[in-house]
Amino acid sequence: MALSADILRGHTDAIILAQLVAGDSYGYQINKTVTERTGGAYGFKEATLYTAFKRLEQNGLITSYWGEDGPGARRRYYAVTEAGMAKLAEDRQEWNETKRVMDALISWKEGL
Amino acid sequence: MALSADILRGHTDAIILAQLVAGDSYGYQINKTVTERTGGAYGFKEATLYTAFKRLEQNGLITSYWGEDGPGARRRYYAVTEAGMAKLAEDRQEWNETKRVMDALISWKEGL
DNA sequence: ATGATATACCTCGCCTGTCAAGGTATTATT
DNA sequence: AATAATACCTTGACAGGCGAGGTATATCAT
After folding, report:
1. Residue A85's domain spans which residues?
2. What is the pLDDT of residues A21-37, one digit of tens each?
3. pTM, to two decimals
4. What string of DSSP letters covers chain A?
5. Is A45's CB less than 7 Å from nucleic acid strand C?
6. Chain B residues with CB inside 8 Å of A105's CB?
7. Chain A partners of B11 at a C-beta cutoff of 8 Å?
8. Which residue is closest to A105 within chain B, CA to CA?
9. Structural domain includes residue A111
10. Which residue of A8, A14, A17, A71 has the lowest C-beta tally within 10 Å?
11. Considering the domain boundaries, does residue B112 fall inside one?
């Protein structure tokens, strides 16, 4: 099942931060990783992705730099900041809480 | 931890439908139930709730009727339609997929 | 050479769900 | 008379997602 982004709205920043803690990366690569890790179930639309980078950088959660010139198109790399790490920790807690809340609200309850 | 609605955006309809399959209910009651079932971690803002009812009814997922006159303020009751049931089944599947995808993307991986 | 495909980045403007703020009305409590 | 709880509703602003468009480099097939 392919997921719509409306369902994951608000989780975009957390997903990006989580990919970046594994090491600096760039837009195209991050998106490919996301698609692979979800078995093709999810991927960002480009506009969403670059909008998110801009937002994250403006909020001081990531920093960016141009990759060294090599063959192929230029790449802008992103790195998580300390604030980004802290935010990710919060987001992870929030996600656990989201699961708890949603399961309490929409799951099947045989006994109820 | 109190959850912001931005995190649950897109899940509002599913949450409401899930409450209604247990029996017809009205706005105020549904919201109280949601707050109770989540231990106070989540509740709809009124504007969100009534906007959602309108949307759900326009999409044929619920129907509404005024409760019989009794003491206290009038109540508008809502009932799930067949289409609403089908939609909820989809939403539940989608939620399971969401959990899988999010866990794959943001969880701690000791071994990775 | 020419076109297609993959890589790689970016912006503009629309759409949609959330919600602060405002409103109405009934009943019970202080 | 005032306050709180119950119960409903609308308007306008805001923010994130994204369709559509643009730019540029490199590879591969025709």
Report:
1. 5-106
2. 999 999 999 999 999 99
3. 0.92
4. -PPPHHHHTT-HHHHHHHHHTTS-EEHHHHHHHHHHHTTTS----HHHHHHHHHHHHHTTSEEEEEPPP-SSS--EEEEE-HHHHHHHHHHHHHHHHHHHHHHHHHS--TT-
5. no
6. 15, 18-19, 34, 37-38, 42
7. 7, 102, 106
8. B15
9. no
10. A71
11. no
